Every structure is written in structure tokens, then in C-alpha cells.
Amino acid sequence: MSEHLRVAVIGHAFMGAAHIHAWRTAPQFFDLPRRPEVALLVGRDEARVREAGSRLEIPETSTDWLAVVQREDIDVIDICTPGDRHAEIACAALEAGKHVLCEKPLANTVAEAERMVQAARTAEAAGSRTFCGFSYRRTPALALARRFVEEGRLGEIRHVRAQYLQDWLSDADAPLTWRLEKEKAGSGSLGDIGAHSVDAAQWISGQRIEGVSSLLHTFVPTRPISGDRAGLGGTASSSAERGPVTVDDAAAFTARFSGGAVGVFEATRYALGRRNANRLEINGSLGSIAFDFERMNELQHFDGRDDQEAQGFRTIQVTDVVHPYADHWWPVGHGLGYGDLFVHQMADFVASLEAEPLRPDFADALEVQRVLDAVELSAAQDSRYTPVQRGE
Ligand code: SOE
Deepest in the core among 227, 272, 282, 355, taking most CB within 10 A? Predict the structure, then answer.
């Protein structure tokens, strides 16, 4: 492996740590044209970023992201901050000629995402690459599902059924965190997890969402402003002072797809007992696939062309060397976990620097943002059917 690829990671909470782990692990399992090296960690609070830098063994830390994106010795800016910082950091990094990897959803609004795509077009013409972290595309089972659809094994796609269910907000006294503030996160369950479903559904079906009819709901309108924020939800005393939750707790919508499919989507962080049930089922004229991330190494496949008496959903263990990514890992397919998606993502990103640009890029992620926007608009109009605004 030749040259190093020097990465600055901005943000060091859950996603920052997942990315750092992945940058480190990728070259151990994938043969890459350049060796990624997390050279710098950026955070807002000096003491906290120093502590994280020392724990995660990053040689340098900073609180000045603008100075970092302008540094000559940094090749990649990896944005793991809340959504309200994405546009500003990405645009400055692209202007400085960096490759930019940005967590999902791309931005908090369509206007910000459009600005990012505009900056990306100019920078990409000069050699920069952009990428948005819809990490579930790197799940072997979902990559296999896409392959099946592309090969025509499902026939004409009729139904797309997506649910993303978590439960870390079920406790009404879990404290207010940035994921519950519209100004910081853009939206709630819709953008945080529903965005993954929108991306996966469009990517795997090969069809884009043309219009939606939706409802959004907030179950717990205020939460304690202080408390223990360990994990995603955390705990607080019910007598603590409370502040407003300004995002949706649950999102549900139906959708029409460009190729004639219809979709039903649901996203919530209140589905008690569902820890990370990112589910997708697609029914076509020839077959169906079904997936649940809680069993991420499996893909259910029904082939309508099997003998009638032998028909039924079969469970494919997506861990064989013939399956996406699996040949890079353990010899006899022992299976993978959540962190490995990010390893795949970083490996694909580094490999793509010497090849075709990796998808989803910022332009693809803007398409997801437009769908999120239509969902919010429809909900604000009592579920009125709302075409996705593409301005074409
Ligand atoms: C929290 O809901 C979260 O961490 C999301 O922000 C991630 O995108 C998802 O992969 C896991 O859950």
C-alpha cells in the first residue's frame, strides 16, 4: 500500500467513534490503494475532545474546524456532527479541495442540501469526492437484495414496505438531546432513521419516490434538560426542569414510486423492545425479499417460480464467500455486526478514490432530503398527497 490518506474526523460521539474504528479496521481486511489514517479529531469543547482523542488514540485534536479543513496535510474531512453543522463544514471543506464524507441525513433542510450539492459539483470537477453515510447500503444482505432486484429475480416491483423501529426514547423522562431539537437535527425519527429506509428503498428498488402522504407525531412534548446522557436515550429525574421536544417521535407515510410500486414506511424510536429493527420487504411479480437488521446476516427470499409444493421463504445466510463483502472477513463466514458496515463504507470510499465515485454522493443524498421534505409538508397539510419537489 502506498501513500497515507489523512483524515480529520469532526465529532467524536457515537458516529465519530464508529467512523474512527472503521478507518482503522478497513486496511486490515481490504486491500486499499491508500492507507487511511485518522490524523486529527475535532470537537467543540477542548477538554472533551482531548479526552476523546486520547481514548481513541488520535495524535492531534482541535476545536477549530475551519482551520482544520484548510490544512494542506489533510485529505479527507469526515463530518460526524449534528445536522446543523453539515452544510457549513462541507462547503468550506469542498472549497479547500478536500474529499468530504458526511453523515446522514445530508442536511437539515433541502436548501442546505442544495447548497452542498452546488459546492460538490465545483469541487468534484476539480477532483474532490463526496459521500453521504447511508451506511446500511453496506450491509451484505441488503447489497444482495439489490443484486437480486437488478438481476430481475423479483420481477416487477409492486410493494416496498419499510420500518425502522428503535426504542431508546420510550422512557418519557430520558433527557432532551440534540436528536430531539429541530434546530440541531432537522427532524426526529424521520431524518434520523426514516432517512435510511428512504435511501435503501430507492436504492434497492431502483425506483425513486414521486410523492407521499404522511403523518408525524410527537408523543412526549417536553423532556428534562439535564440528566445522564449515557447511550442514546439516557436517564433523568422526572422532577428535573423540562424543555420542548421540537421534532417528530414517529413518522408514517405511504409513497408512490416512479416505476409503479407503492410503499409504506414507518419510523419510530418508541417501539419498545425493538432495538434496531431496520426492516425492508419488497414484493415483486416473481418473488419477494425480506430483511431485518436485528438478523443482519440473513436475507429472506421467496421465489414464486419454485415448485408450488416446495414454495416458502428461504433464509439465506449472507456470509458465504460469494456474498457481498464476505470474502474479506472470516474464513468460513462467521457473520458480521453493526460496526462492520462502517468498515465496508470506508473501504469502498478509499477504493473509489482510484475508480468510479462511490454512491450515494451528495447529489443522491439530496434526493433523500427532498423526500423527507415532502413527508413534512404532507404531514403539515393533514396527510395530503404531496409530490416530491425536484424542480425538473
Ligand atoms: C440513532 O437512532 C442511530 O444512531 C442513527 O442516528 C443511526 O443512523 C443508525 O444507524 C442507528 O441509530
Answer: 282
